[in-house]
Amino acid sequence: MQFPWLAQPIFAERIESAIAPPEGYHWQAAKAGSFGAWLARLPLYPKGHKVHLYNGAEKPYQAGAARVIQIDVGQSDLQQCADAIMRLYAEYAYAQKDYAAIFFNFTSGDRVGFSDWAKGKKPIVKGNRVYFSAAKGAADYSYGNFRSYLKRIFMFAGTASLAAELPKKPLAQLEAGDLFLQGGFPGHAVLVMGVAQNKDGKKQFLLAQSYMPAQEIHLLRNLQAGGSPWFSLAEDEILYTPEWNFAVGSLHSFSGRK
């Protein structure tokens, strides 16, 4: 399986094969072709790889990271928490050539889609207003143009816009590809990368994040459970992650987004 952000095919560990489910649990298979199924196949750097910032420096705080996902962070301080999740969702849709599914709202509420961008209809921000240039020329769906689109999204979208865009979801329906999200300035978001379930239907799940400043996307450790990468949560509980705590009712989904 090739990933366009990598220069050549790799033979790295994948999340679903590298992370064993907790004792008494089994991986909950995501629907074939879904965002969750795609996430489970993402490659990991070897064990011991440190989380690096966008400028190449090691992140000072490493204790919260279990493994690091093999995907670039870019060369500027843009791919932070919500941006990393938008990046992964957009990469998934791009891999399916589902260009119409690649759209995000700016904090202003203006929707910016890759299909329009590819046709030359690009956002122009002037003060608090967003205008769009007229479409022109042949559509450009190249990976380079896709990354240029994402860079613009990262500049003008974030946790606040995602919180308004993505519907909330009951915790009982949690699945890979969902996210825990607190919109704000700053806010934070972590992505559900995989789910394990036991015979009684109880679930545990993997989480991944980027953070501030922009840094490599990494699987988190559950510091409330001895550093395991697996988290569990009841409906009335706060979700504690190494660098952010999420209030009850913070689960959102890309399904049915507005």
Characterization of the model:
It is a single chain. The protein is an alpha+beta fold and 258 residues long. The protein has one domain (1-97, 158-258). Helices cover 20% and strands 22% of the residues. A hairpin with a 4-residue loop joins β8 and β9 (203-209). α3 runs antiparallel to α5. InterPro entries: DUF4846 (IPR032315). This is DUF4846 domain-containing protein.
Write a compact overview of the structure shown.
The chain is α+β, with helices and mostly antiparallel strands and 258 residues long. Helix content is 20%, strand content 22%.
Write the layout of secondary structure elements.
Layout lengths: L14 H4 L6 E3 L7 H6 L24 E4 L12 H15 L7 E3 L5 E3 H5 L4 E4 L2 E4 L10 H14 L2 H7 L13 E4 L5 E11 L4 E7 L8 E3 L9 E2 L7 E3 L2 E3 L4 E2 L6
Antiparallel strand pairs: 1-8, 2-10, 3-4, 5-6, 7-8, 7-14, 8-9, 9-10, 9-11, 12-13
List its traits.
single chain, 258 residues, alpha+beta, eight-stranded antiparallel sheet, two-stranded antiparallel sheet, 6 helices, 14 strands, 22% strand
Radius of gyration in whole Å, from Cα? 18 Å
Shape: globular
Helix content percent band:
10-25%
Number of domains: 1
Number of helical segments with 4 or more residues: 6
The class by helix and strand makeup works out as alpha+beta
Low-pLDDT ranges: none
Main beta sheet, described? 8 strands, antiparallel
User: Span from first to last CA?
Assistant: 31 Å
Report the β-strand fraction as a percent range.
15-25%
Mean pLDDT across all amino acids: 95
**What order do the helices and strands follow?**
HEHEHEEHEEHHEEEEEEEE
Give the beta-strand count.
14
